[in-house]
Amino acid sequence: MRSVTTEIEIPAPPEDVWEVLLDFSRYGEWNPFIREAGGRAERGGTLTLRMHPTKGRPVNFRPKVLVAEVETELRWRGKLLMPGLFDGEHHFLLTDLGTPEDPATRLVHGETFRGVLVPVLGMVIRRAEHDFRLLNEALAERAAARYTERVGRAVPTVGDGAPGPVGPVGTRLPSEPASEEADTPGEPTAGGDGEPRRAD
């Protein structure tokens, strides 16, 4: 068994993070890793996901949803070809860290891999961490923008610096610094959690 865990703090409440995460029809607008998604995000439902790893070809998966607890947890599990070969359990965990005046959500995003192929697919698993982090950053920006639009106020920019002061939408207070801001063909892609069908 091997696990990959990533984490990010998002300047938006869980409500907005959850809405972005479950709005599958818009994944192509912001998600660099899961470009297409569909299905029922409810326990026992089946998802259809098209993964675009940083390295490697796009791959399709059909994982089963294990947990879909509103604004708290989304978890799915799938397999490569057959159970016990290369199984993955993928999760998004949301924790509310903020207040109504200063919203924040901790996102823990990861996957646990099991099966006889895990020891020989170490490179695939290591590349998954990079792709997960890219997804986290894009999700944070999308959720923060959604919150800003919804409540009509600016939120701190996602980045390495400490959160700056909040001003009206479209403005930046003087004390707030300007923001700056896997897999080879034929290999199964980590993070897919379902039965893959290699895309041409």
TrEMBL record:
<dbReference type="Pfam" id="PF10604">
    <property type="entry name" value="Polyketide_cyc2"/>
</dbReference>
<feature type="region of interest" description="Disordered">
    <location>
        <begin position="155"/>
        <end position="200"/>
    </location>
</feature>
<protein>
    <submittedName>
        <fullName>SRPBCC domain-containing protein</fullName>
    </submittedName>
</protein>
<dbReference type="InterPro" id="IPR023393">
    <property type="entry name" value="START-like_dom_sf"/>
</dbReference>
<dbReference type="InterPro" id="IPR019587">
    <property type="entry name" value="Polyketide_cyclase/dehydratase"/>
</dbReference>
